[in-house]
Design goal:
Layout: H1 2-10, E1 12-14, H2 16-34, H3 41-61, E2 67-72, E3 77-78, E4 83-91, E5 97-103, E6 115-120, E7 125-132, E8 138-142, E9 145-150, E10 156-162, E11 166-171, H4 174-185, E12 205-211, H5 223-229, E13 233-238, E14 244-250, E15 258-259, E16 262-263, H6 264-281, E17 285-291, E18 295-302, H7 307-316, H8 327-337, E19 343-347, H9 353-369, E20 371-377, H10 380-387, H11 393-418, E21 422-426, H12 431-444
Parallel strand pairs: 3-11, 14-17, 14-19, 19-20, 20-21
Antiparallel strand pairs: 1-10, 2-4, 4-7, 5-6, 5-9, 8-11, 9-10, 12-13, 15-16, 17-18
Helix pairs in contact: 2-3, 4-6, 6-7, 6-12, 8-9, 10-11
Length: 448
Amino acid sequence: MKKIISLFYRNLFLTNRLFAALTCSVVLFLLSFFFPWLGIIPTLAFWVLIILFLMDVLLLYRTANGVFAKRHAPERLSNSDNNDLGVYIENWYSFPISVGIIDEIPFQFQKRDIWFKTNLKPREKKLINYVLRPTRRGEYEFGDIRVYAKSPLGFIRRRYNFEQAETLPVYPSFLQMRKYELMAISNRLTDIGIKKIRRIGHSMEFEQVKNYVQGDDYRTINWKATARQGNLMVNSYTDEKSQHVYCIIDKSRAMKMPFEGLSLLDYAINASLVLSNVALLKEDKAGLITISEKLGVVIPAERRPAHLNKILEALYKEKTRYLETNMELLFAIVRKVIKQRSLVVFFTNYESLNALHRQLPFLKRIAKYHLLLVVFFENTELKKLSEQPAADVEGIYIKTIAEKFAYDKKLIVKELAKHGIQSILSTPQNLTINTINRYLEIKAKQKI
């Protein structure tokens, strides 16, 4: 009995409407001292309020379970993407109600305003959708769903607690991967910013004879087939297949820097996942290596159906470390694991020429055996500072230093090119698009 009474008081909440009615009743009692003609009106008003209050309690509590709610969530969330979630709610009362819903989302989002309001007719069902954008990989713990129901009288709210604690993993951006996957399958990568690569020459792997369309190379016209068909026919060639593409991700402290809530490591992980998927769709073999002061994950290049999921699971667990990259160890692993000439995409970050010079001897040795593509980041915050006009002497100093760092980035590109190493200097937001662009360009020019 005590437990029932305790639950009753714990889940009963008074509304502003009740306090407003009590305030009016008190005012009437005060006025009755100055205006005796009010008589018993204040007393009647008070008892009417008490009766309505008890009726409201009876309406909400005579049904044991007047409301049902459940969270609709995917099995896993995609990092840096908008993930759709929802709360399904159903009114089991015989009268319309107004409800407020609190979904206890993980603390990582730092949001305390997830409050939804809606009205439900008798026996009505609704699905309330909302969006969450995580910025860190890992496990996110959701709490209970709390529903506050209010009858048409509106003097109290009854709280319903639905225990639905669950833990959802946040994986690298698989939603972005699927978007690029659909574009790659339909050859529509240009629709989302992937530029069209102009071919210089073509692969010698014959695919088919097809009708000529505007834009086809005249040199590929098949005159014998043209004579037989009476229409221009051309030979179609396909890119070379089963080439090895390795993504090497630097996990050192240089990749800890945050941009728009995501670390550089997360940007590199998302780009690696998309690049691996596109490479597999192009019938190449994708591999992965992660490195810091010690070796992380090594996944040899393959094309098996479950290979992409193996890469996804490996990337999900990676974290930034705080020491510099052991480049000597990286070179030893590359020589041991990668047996044939491959495209090696090294995701890292350099803030100065000195940082590059410490690693350059090992980069040159890797480039001797493989086609090395170094991908590093443009500091967008420093770029903004360098473009802002200086208002005082301190502003001039800041602008000059920012321009120096931006110029160092360009010198790093030139230094790498001087040693025959390709590079991409990209903003974090455009990293995926720029990396896929360069991969498609390398395949089109048959550089591997």
